[in-house]
Write a structure and sequence with these properties.
The protein has helices at 17-20, 30-37, 45-48, 63-78, 111-115, 127-140, 155-165, 189-200, 211-227, 267-274, 322-331, 354-363, 378-386, and strands spanning 4-5, 10-12, 82-84, 90-97, 100-110, 119-120, 142-143, 147-151, 171-174, 180-186, 205-209, 239-246, 252-253, 255-259, 278-282, 294-299, 302-308, 346-350, 369-373, 397-398, 409-410. By secondary structure, the chain is of the alpha+beta class. The chain has 2 domains: 4-249 and 400-410, no CATH class; 255-374, Conserved hypothetical protein from pyrococcus furiosus pfu- 392566-001, domain 2 (2-Layer Sandwich), CATH 3.30.1760. The longest helix has 17 residues, at 211-227. The radius of gyration is 23 Å and the shape is globular.
Length: 412
């Protein structure tokens, strides 16, 4: 069983592509999705966020929501908005954001290789989110949200990719947020075979984003394997849809923190506690850390620059991450937040929102203080995954985000 293989994707007819393509399901809440899809019956949000077509207040995990998503998908197929390719192919997917391009290969990857950890993960998943994706895949009989993977750059793959970039694309559209999405179809049998062999020779792939989707695909495959007495391993449920980008094109943004209170400490007592583990200096403006071990802190209208004491940096791949250093030496011991996944006193702000968002959250009185971090590196992510360890929550923020609706993987 190969690591990846081509597939006959379900995708929009060219004239409908701009109407169909939508932001990923997990970056909009229900009301934002409802507003975005208003007057746009072909929007993929009717499939990825189908609660928008049910009465306000409907539980997004209600069985009726998954059923409506399946109905909406079938409607777009019946209306000829979506069609399925006639043969298994690969697709090239280029995103351009702020003048920077990254190009990924759209394929389906082996669930068995994911289960064996050849497709490596670095995050825990939440059971409720996993259950949601399992129910969504099962109801639609399709994977509509690709998993975002990365791999170590490969010159053979680069050569094939470049050949297609020099040809007219199938789709070329710019989303509301200014990100440009372009798709090519790779249907040449020799190129397909070369790409399949090139990836099969790789020792591993890495999940950048999509841990819940990949875990859910594994669970669906297990369920269907158990229910199929004629299981061969070739069935489409044994694979899950991915977009794979070379590591030299990936960009990770900072993932910052805001905290609701100072754990009962006065400002002076809090700063004294911080100084036990960090060098603290008053800054003359917003602090965007320029290296590892440096942090910005915004408190009471003032920015501070923090530098971790070098003797507090451990050697293990998780402990030395900046997100770990901040948690282990300040957020937990000083602010009393031991479980950032569940503690409502802490929230996380993606770097795409800028340092102004940190100031806004504090100045409004909603939060007491904010921390800006240096972005986690892709090498760090790979080192954690290779060690079969798990990063702290909200360690990485990838941009740009993959769109929903360009290509879906139907489970025959």
């Amino acid at each position: 069983m190969p690591l990846i293989r081509p597939f006959a994707g379900l995708r929009p007819e060219k004239q409908y592509a701009e109407d169909v393509v939508a932001p990923p399901y997990d970056v909009l809440n229900t009301e934002e999705a409802r507003a975005r899809a208003e007057g746009r019956p072909r929007s993929f949000l009717h499939i990825s966020k189908p609660e928008i077509d049910l009465p306000p207040g409907t539980d997004p995990y209600d069985e009726a929501v998954y059923a409506r998503g399946a109905e909406n998908l079938q409607r777009l197929i019946d209306e000829g908005v979506l069609r399925r390719d006639e043969k298994p192919v690969y697709y090239l997917y280029r995103l351009i954001m702020d003048g920077r391009a990254q190009v990924g290969l759209v394929a389906v990857a082996s669930v068995a290789e994911y289960d064996r950890n050849r497709i490596r993960r670095h995050e825990f998943t939440r059971p409720d989110k996993e259950d949601d994706r399992v129910r969504q895949i099962d109801a639609l009989n399709a994977q509509t949200g690709p998993v975002f993977l990365t791999y170590r750059q490969n010159p053979v793959v680069d050569e094939v990719v470049q050949k297609y970039l020099d040809t007219p694309p199938e789709y070329d559209l710019t989303a509301d947020d200014g990100v440009r999405h372009t798709l090519w179809v790779i249907d040449n049998d020799a190129d397909i075979e070369l790409l399949t062999r090139s990836f099969d020779a790789m020792d591993q792939l890495y999940i950048a984003d999509g841990h819940h989707r990949s875990a859910a695909a594994s669970r669906v495959a297990a369920m269907r394997r158990e229910a199929n007495p004629g299981h061969t391993g070739e069935e489409s449920y044994n694979y899950f849809q991915v977009v794979m980008f070379p590591d030299n094109q990936m960009k990770i943004l900072d993932y910052n923190r805001v905290v609701r209170d100072m754990n009962g400490l006065s400002k002076e007592a809090f700063l004294d506690a911080v100084k036990k583990s960090f060098e603290v200096e008053v800054a003359d403006g917003a602090v965007r850390p320029q290296r590892r071990g440096e942090f910005g802190m915004y408190l009471d209208g003032q920015w501070y620059r923090l530098n971790i004491r070098p003797d507090l940096i451990p050697g293990d791949p998780v402990g030395k991450l900046d997100v770990s250093l901040l948690h282990d030496n300040l957020i937990e011991p000083v602010l009393g937040i031991s479980d950032p996944r569940r503690d409502k006193r802490i929230d996380f702000v993606g770097g795409i929102r800028g340092l102004e968002e940190l100031e806004r959250r504090v100045d409004s009185g909603e939060m007491a203080l904010a921390f800006s971090l240096y972005p986690t590196s892709l090498d760090d992510l790979m080192a954690v995954a290779d060690a079969e360890k798990v990063m702290p929550p909200k360690s990485t923020w990838f941009e740009p985000k993959l769109a929903d609706g360009l290509v879906s993987h139907v489970l025959d």
